[in-house]
Amino acid sequence: AGKYSTLGAMPTERTFAMIKPDGVRRGLTAEILRRIELKGYRTVGLKLYQIPRETAESHYGEHSAKPFFGELVDFITSGPVVAIALEGENAIAGWRSMMGATNPANAAPGTIRGDFATSVGENVTHGSDSPESAQRELALFFAEGELLK
Ligand code: GDP
Ligand code: MG
């Protein structure tokens, strides 16, 4: 029995999720929020947001040397996004698992990218990839007063 004793002990985490401009334009907002609610994550921050260019460059700073960086910043600032702060057990990896692989060609059916996207550049959602990224991205997109305690 001891070997199973940690199964229920996943950490409560906060993560940054985002519906990208393609998802908003295509009317996928309600479907994606529905999936989040059905999964059971708590939404502790939520807003429609036009990302300033400098914020986009900072958010995607790790990709600044990549050939697609300019295109990525142009795209993410091309229209409003829905910025979401999620809370729940194992929320960081769990939300990434709901999104599916970065390239929709490799994303399993049943995942958001697997079900709704065909292009790596326009893959509908974002999710933080680690506790450090989650903390950095939540602070970049939300003022303290915009997040529930
Ligand atoms: P993510 O964490 O799964 O979103 O993936 P990454 O952090 O590796 O990349 C950030 C975003 O850059 C991805 O979600 C894609 O939308 C975009 N991206 C990644 N690779 C490419 C590429 O080769 N071309 C273009 N246009 N966009 C890309
Ligand atoms: Mg990433």
Automatic annotation (TrEMBL):
Pfam families in the cross-refs: NDK
SUPFAM superfamilies membership: Nucleoside diphosphate kinase, NDK
GO MF, one annotated term: nucleoside diphosphate kinase activity
PANTHER family per UniProt: NUCLEOSIDE DIPHOSPHATE KINASE
Reaction(s) catalysed (UniProt annotation): a ribonucleoside 5'-diphosphate + ATP = a ribonucleoside 5'-triphosphate + ADP; a 2'-deoxyribonucleoside 5'-diphosphate + ATP = a 2'-deoxyribonucleoside 5'-triphosphate + ADP
Binding residues annotated for ATP, in chain numbering: 20, 68, 96, 102, 113, 123
Subunit structure: Homotetramer.
Active-site residues, as the UniProt record annotates them: 126
GO cellular component terms, semicolon-separated: cytoplasm
Nucleoside diphosphate kinase-like domain location: 12-149
Coiled coil stretches, renumbered: none
Entry similarity comment: Belongs to the NDK family.
Superkingdom as given in the UniProt entry: Bacteria
Protein name: Nucleoside diphosphate kinase
Role played: Major role in the synthesis of nucleoside triphosphates other than ATP. The ATP gamma phosphate is transferred to the NDP beta phosphate via a ping-pong mechanism, using a phosphorylated active-site intermediate.
Organism: Deinococcus proteolyticus (strain ATCC 35074 / DSM 20540 / JCM 6276 / NBRC 101906 / NCIMB 13154 / VKM Ac-1939 / CCM 2703 / MRP)
Top-rank EC class of the record's enzyme: transferase
Cofactor(s) needed for function: Mg(2+)
Alphabetical UniProt keywords: ATP-binding, Cytoplasm, Kinase, Magnesium, Metal-binding, Nucleotide metabolism, Nucleotide-binding, Phosphoprotein, Transferase
Signal peptide span: none
Enzyme Commission code: 2.7.4.6
Source organism phylogeny: Bacteria, Thermotogati, Deinococcota, Deinococci, Deinococcales
Location within or outside the cell: Cytoplasm
